[in-house]
Amino acid sequence: MNKNDDFDPNESAFDRLMRRMNAPDRPIKIVRLDPYETAKTKDVVRLSREGFCTVACKMLFAKLGNGELWGLMNNERDSVSHYFLLVDGKAVDFGGFMSLEEMQLIFGEYHRAIPVEWERLHYDIRELGLEPEERSIVVERFREHLDSTF
Question: Do 103 and 53 share a structural domain?
Fold first, then answer.
């Protein structure tokens, strides 16, 4: 048995883990991930619902040519968690057309659907702070999705 694997009943689990990770025969490997990995690989619908809905909403509006801007207001934080369009009484985002109730269910009981002014969307887009390369990756993936779906 390796001396690094000795069990000491007085040692905490965290200390044991740290001791084992720092053992000479187990050097820590640092892996540098692609900073745009999420933008490149995450499912497009999830990407549009988890941080990039402002970009998706603008592109969807341009593709459909109409729609009212709506958002899901988080009742606990008093902020919009997700933007989408309302077209002919149906909510639409990159996941497709659905009822307002279905849209609210995706984000949970602490959200309510409200109409939103376009100025707020533009403000949130500025606050998103995307790097130009990341934005171009997201826009291209969203464009491909829109062309094949809508």
Answer: yes
User: Which residues fall within 8 angstroms of residue 53, CB to CB, at 6 or more apart?
Assistant: 82, 83, 84, 93
- 20 is written with which tokens? 């084992």
What per-residue confidence (pLDDT) applies to 69? 97
Counted domains in the chain:
2
5-47 pLDDT, tens digit each: 566 777 787 777 777 766 666 665 655 567 788 889 999 999 9
Please give the Cα distance from 99 to 61 (Å, whole number): 18
Average pLDDT over the chain reads 85
The DSSP string of 79-136 is EEEEEEEEETTEEEETTEEE-HHHHHHHH-TTEEEEE--HHHHHHHHHHH---HHHHH
Give residue 130's domain range.
Answer: 37-149
